[in-house]
Amino acid sequence: MTPVATVRRPVHHDMTRTASSSVPDRRLLVAIHDVSPRSEAAVDALAARLERHLGGPNFAMLVIPDHWRQAPIAGNTAFHARLRNWADMGIEMFLHGWCHRDETPAAHGLAGFKGKHMTAGEGEFLNLPHAQALARMREGKSMLEDILGRPVAGFIAPAWLYGEGALAALDEVGFALAEDHMKVWQPRTGRVLSRGPVVTWASRSPGRIRSSLWFSALARHALPILPTLRVAVHPGDTTVPALLSSIDATLARFVQSHRPSRYASLLA
To answer: Does residue 122 form part of some domain?
Structure first.
């Protein structure tokens, strides 16, 4: 197995090594998406990178129970131990769908457009009927909480895409938090806790790489006026040096004005 990330002791509070501690109401929320046995090496590399910028394990991980139906965490005791260790270090653990694959794609309309252009066949919860969305959320939440020995931090749909069935299911399952491209909210009450775009990167094509580099550069100048900044990184980012450089530049800029924080701080 890959060695555990560099911080050894549990951390259950926000840490920072920048002047941003003087503005505690300005939060920086950072997450590693697509955490699964198939992405473990890339997740380790991203976690080490984030720790250097954020002063410790002050970020979240989004866990997929069975990534593309090829990497089930059920029965994988070695990966269970890694998940528990990350959680013990203070990393927030979110449920990130079930398989991260759109198995009910829409052919037409807005849902079809989103499924085709906003993700590469990974909008799992965009078109799921309510009953299927509810079953996957409940089973995933129960499995992950049994592994971690604690509640999950919340639910974030693959590609941040939710259909009506998924949104209705969120209200029933009891997640503390949910997130899409433009906001973080409390599913049980509908209360919006933070607004503003997620800064993220895409590695699947030269065009996507260029557009994400352009947007992140713009975000470094325009977004620090917001009280809460959100950054999301993916295992595929580790394959493109230009994306890693952009991630470094973005985090270096954001920690100057915003304190690395936990999503749960939005509920305080």
So the answer is: yes
Q: Can you give the pLDDT at residue 214?
A: 98
The total of structural domains in the chain comes to 1
CB 73 within 8 A of CB 143: yes
Contact 124, 100 (CB under 8 A): yes
Q: Which domain holds residue 88?
A: 19-267
246 located within any domain: yes
- Asked if pLDDT for residue 140 goes beyond 80, the answer is yes
Q: Tokens 């931090």 appear where?
A: 153
CB 219 within 8 A of CB 250: yes
pLDDT tens readout for residues 68-79 = 999 999 999 999
CATH value at residue 106: 3.20.20.370
Residues 6+ apart with CB under 8 A from 250: 199, 216, 219, 220, 231
For residue 178, is it within any domain?
Answer: yes
Asked if the structure places residue 10 within a domain, the reply is: no
Contact status, residue 221 vs residue 211, Cβ threshold 8 Å: no
Mean pLDDT of the residues in the chain: 88
Looking at per-residue pLDDT, the higher value among 111 and 50 belongs to: 50
Q: Is the pLDDT of residue 131 over 50?
A: yes
DSSP calls for 114-177: HHHHSSSS--TTTS--HHHHHHHHHHHHHHHHHHHTS---EEE-GGG---HHHHHHHHHHT-S-
Amino acid identity at 207: G
